[in-house]
Amino acid sequence: MASSSDNEEVRVLGKWASPFSNRIDLALKLKGVPYNYSEEDLANKSLDLLKYNPVHKKVPVLVHNGNSIAESLVILEYIDEVWNNNNNHAFLPQDPYHRALARFWCKTLDDKILPAIWNACWSDEKGREKAVEEALEALKILQDELKDKKFFGGETIGLVDIAANFIGYWVSILQEIAGLELLTIEKFPKLYKWSQEYINHPVIKEGLPPRDELFAFFKASAKK
Amino acid sequence: MASSSDNEEVRVLGKWASPFSNRIDLALKLKGVPYNYSEEDLANKSLDLLKYNPVHKKVPVLVHNGNSIAESLVILEYIDEVWNNNNNHAFLPQDPYHRALARFWCKTLDDKILPAIWNACWSDEKGREKAVEEALEALKILQDELKDKKFFGGETIGLVDIAANFIGYWVSILQEIAGLELLTIEKFPKLYKWSQEYINHPVIKEGLPPRDELFAFFKASAKK
After folding, report:
1. In the CATH scheme, what architecture does the domain B96-223 have?
2. Does B50 have pLDDT greater than 50?
3. Which N-terminal stretch is annotated as signal sequence (chains A, B) (predicted)?
C-alpha cells in the first residue's frame, strides 16, 4: 500500500453544488489530506477534465501525483486505501462481510435511493404521487439499514455515510424547493436524527457548501 | 481477514442464463471454492431470494455461513477478500491505483458498456442505427483499455475480466440472434482475441453455460 507523504500532489476537479463531487472534499478533509480544488464549468468543460476522465467527462476526478481516478465511490475507496496510516479514520471496516455490506449500501444509494428522491423532487404534477411514494420507500429502506446506530459506519463516519451525503444535506434543500415532505422527523425519526448528527459533525459541517447558496442554485434550476 | 476452511457453507442463488449470475460461479471456480447452487425461477422467486436480497430481490446472491451478499460486483470483491490465502488467484492487484482502475472499469462496464450493447441487440428498427453506434463506441472504449494485454488483469484473469463476462461470451450469441456485427475480429481485433483467450481459459470454459442452450433461450426471448 502507498502511504501519504508531505510532497505529494492531490487535486480535485469538482462542482461545488454536486453531492457526488462534495463526497471527495469531505473524504479528504476527514483524512486530513490537503488538496487543490478546481471548480469545473460543466457547460464548458476544461481540457483537464476531458483528459483525466475521457470516458465519462464528469466530475469528480481525483488526480494524485499525476494519476487520475473518476467515479466518486471508486475515489472514496482509493482515498481510504492510500491514506490509511495508523487506521487513520478508516471508511471501511476490516471484516470482509461488513466491507461487502458497506459496498452494497453505497451501490444501492447510487442506483436506487438517490435517483428515487431526485425524481420525486423534480417530478411534474402528473408523475408526482408515484415518485413520492418511491422516494418514501427508498428512505424507509435506508432507515431500516441504519437501525439504532449513530452513523452507518457505527460510532464514526464511514463509507456509507459519505455516500449518503445527498440524503444528509441536499434532500432538506430540494424538498423545500419542491414543496415536499420526504425526510422529516415525523416520517423518519432515526434517519432524520442521523442527518442532524451528520451535518453537525465538525469536519462535515466545515466541508459542506453553504445552504443558502445551494438553495439559490437549485431554486434557479427549478425555474428553468 | 477471514480465511477459507473445510466446513464452511457457500451457496449461490442464481439464474443460469445471466452473465451477472455466472460471474459468481466463475469467481468461485477460479478460487477453487466448492459451493451449492440454487437455480431461481425469476417469474416465481423463492422465499430464500426474497429473504436474502430483500432490497433488490435479484440474482445473484451469495450466502456464506448464513451471511448473504447481493450485487455481483460486491460479491466478487468479497470472494477475493475472503479466499485470498497465499494470494490465491487474486482478482485485484495490490497497488491502490491499479485497484481503483479495476473498480472504475467494472463500474463502467455495468453502467455504460453492457447497457449499450444490450440495447443495440434488442433495439427495434427505428432506434437501431443509433444504438449500434453507441455499442460500437462502448466496445472501442473497452478495447482501448485492454491495450496489448492478454487479459484486463494482465497475465491472469482479474476482476475486470470476470465483470466483462458478458462481452467475452454472451455478445457473440446475442449479436448473432440480432443479425448484428458488433464484436468481430475485423472491427475489434484485440478485444476479439481477448474474448477467445477468455472463453478458452480452462476454468472459464468449464464454468460457462452451453452456447446452444443460451442461443435457444435468447432466441425464444427475442420472439416474444
Report:
1. Up-down Bundle (1.20)
2. yes
3. none
